[in-house]
C-alpha cells in the first residue's frame, strides 16, 4: 500500500482550497507543509497561520511540517500549539542530543530530511532515534517540477535495515509515469504536487479514487 500526501506549497494557495476540499472528501489522509526561511534554501514556504487554518479545517488529515530552515528549534513550540503530527528538519543539523531536547518541546513525531548528497551511514545513530524520514527523491531541493532521481529510492531499503520501524515519506519527482517505482520501493507515503492536475484519467475519475485503486485500499 502506498499512501498519497498533497504538498500544499505545490498548489496555488489563492485558488486551491476547493481542490483540497475535494481531495479530503475523497479520502486524502496526509498533507505536506513546507516551511522555508530563505537561509537554508532560497525559497519561501508556508506560514504558521496558514498551517493552523488547514489543521483546524481538516481535523482528520495527518500533517507533516517539512522544515528546510536554519534552526527548527525556533518553530517547535508553535508546532506543538497548533497540534501538527510530524516535524522534520535537515539530517545534517541533527544529533541524538538535539533529538532528545526537541522531544521535550514537541509531543508529536520527529524526523529528519535526507537529501541526495547525505551519506546515510554517517548518521546511523540519528536514524535509529527518529520516528520517520522525509526522503528527498530529487537532486536539488527548494523548487517545484524537479525530475525524480530513481536511484534515491534505493535508500528506502537501507533506511529500513537501520531502523525497521521507520515511517518513510518520499518528497519530489512523483509523476504518473513513475509512481510504480515508489510503490515497488515500499515508500509509506509519497508526496505529490502537480500530479493531481496531470494524471491521465482526470476527466473520468477523481484523483484519490484513481490513486487508491492503483496503490491503496
TrEMBL record:
GO terms for molecular function: metal ion binding; racemase and epimerase activity, acting on carbohydrates and derivatives. It comes from the Bacteria. Keywords: Isomerase, Metal-binding. GO terms for biological process: carbohydrate metabolic process. This is Ribulose phosphate epimerase. It comes from Mycoplasma anserisalpingitidis.
Amino acid at each position: 500500500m502506498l499512501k498519497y500526501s498533497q504538498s500544499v506549497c505545490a498548489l496555488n494557495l489563492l485558488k486551491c482550497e476547493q481542490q483540497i476540499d475535494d481531495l479530503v472528501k475523497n479520502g486524502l489522509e496526509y498533507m505536506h507543509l513546507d516551511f522555508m526561511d530563505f537561509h537554508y534554501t532560497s525559497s519561501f514556504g508556508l506560514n504558521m497561520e496558514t498551517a493552523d487554518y488547514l489543521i483546524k479545517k481538516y481535523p482528520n488529515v495527518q500533517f507533516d511540517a517539512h522544515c528546510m530552515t536554519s534552526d527548527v528549534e525556533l518553530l517547535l513550540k508553535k508546532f506543538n500549539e497548533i497540534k501538527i503530527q510530524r516535524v522534520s528538519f535537515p539530517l545534517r543539523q541533527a544529533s541524538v542530543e538535539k533529538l532528545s531536547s526537541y522531544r521535550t518541546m514537541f509531543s508529536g513525531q520527529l524526523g529528519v530530511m535526507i537529501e541526495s548528497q547525505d551519506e546515510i551511514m554517517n548518521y546511523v545513530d540519528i536514524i535509529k532515534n527518529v520516528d520517520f524520514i522525509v526522503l528527498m527523491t530529487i537532486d536539488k531541493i527548494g523548487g517545484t517540477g524537479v525530475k525524480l532521481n530513481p536511484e534515491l529510492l534505493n535508500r528506502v531499503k537501507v533506511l529500513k535495515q537501520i531502523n525497521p520501524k521507520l515511517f518513510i515519506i518520499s518528497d519530489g519527482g512523483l509523476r504518473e509515469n513513475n509512481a510504480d517505482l515508489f510503490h515497488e520501493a515500499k515508500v509509506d507515503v509519497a508526496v505529490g504536487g502537480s500530479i493531481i492536475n496531470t494524471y491521465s484519467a482526470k476527466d473520468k475519475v477523481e484523483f484519490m479514487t484513481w490513486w487508491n485503486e492503483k496503490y491503496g485500499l
